[in-house]
Design goal:
Elements lengths: L2 E4 L6 E2 L1 H14 L7 H7 L4 H8 L8 H15 L4 E2 L3 H10 L3 E9 H11 L7 E5 L8 H11 L6 E5 L2 H9 L4 E5 L6 H6 L3 E3 L8
Parallel strand pairs: 1-4, 1-6, 4-5, 6-7, 7-8
Antiparallel strand pairs: 2-3
Helix pairs in contact: 1-4, 7-8
């Protein structure tokens, strides 16, 4: 059986504008330099703490944990402004019709991930949903590796759909070669193409 691994934020959920707006608000509040949306998509990276260093945070007077809590409190308040990524429902429904397994591998907190998917009405599409135990936006490679071992999934029968180079790194860490990255998410086409991966502008371009 074929398995499709999905990233969540920026791939399934179109939360780019919300994320960008919150981060600019936080920078303005601190009197720091702000960035355009295009600059944001060129700068964003994993682990997320490295992205915060790029923005100019030093964590000398506040911790990364403090920053993360502030961000996620604002994100929770604005979550209802987010929508599903254009084309997602078409792809996921085609996947289900083909009898494929669908698995989310996300750096988001797993409890929040499950709650949000239920709220969006999409939890029914997924066989498994994996997230992290915190809100710090770290690596999801271990989550993917653990799943591959426990499920005995054949990587040659898998596809990974994401929106960042970390998604591609995660796929490669579990020996998945069929990787598609969408530039409608948190990283720009320029950044994604530097990795040499297949890049689409929208999930609408994916045909299973």
């Amino acid at each position: 059986m074929k398995t499709i691994f999905w990233d969540y934020n920026g791939t399934i959920l179109d939360d780019v504008r919300l994320t960008y707006d919150i981060e600019q608000m936080m920078l303005t509040k601190r009197g720091m330099h702000t960035y355009t949306l295009a600059q944001y998509k060129d700068m964003f990276c994993f682990p997320v703490i490295d992205y915060y260093y790029k923005m100019g945070y030093t964590f000398e007077h506040e911790t990364y944990d403090d920053i993360s809590v502030e961000f996620h409190e604002a994100y929770e308040k604005g979550f209802d402004t987010c929508t599903l990524a254009d084309g997602f429902l078409d792809v996921i429904e085609a996947s289900v019709e083909h009898g494929y397994q669908n698995v989310i591998i996300s750096a988001a907190n797993k409890n929040k991930l499950i709650h949000q998917c239920e709220k969006l009405g999409i939890a029914k599409y997924f066989d498994k949903m994996f997230g992290t135990d915190d809100i710090l936006g770290g690596s999801k490679i271990d989550l993917a590796k653990d799943y591959m071992v426990s499920s005995h999934t054949d990587p040659s029968m898998c596809m990974f759909i994401g929106d960042t180079l970390h998604d591609a790194e995660t796929a490669e860490a579990i020996c998945v070669k069929d990787i598609i990255l969408t530039s409608s998410g948190h990283q720009s086409r320029k950044v994604l193409e530097e990795g040499g991966y297949t890049v689409v502008d929208s999930l609408k371009e994916i045909h299973l």
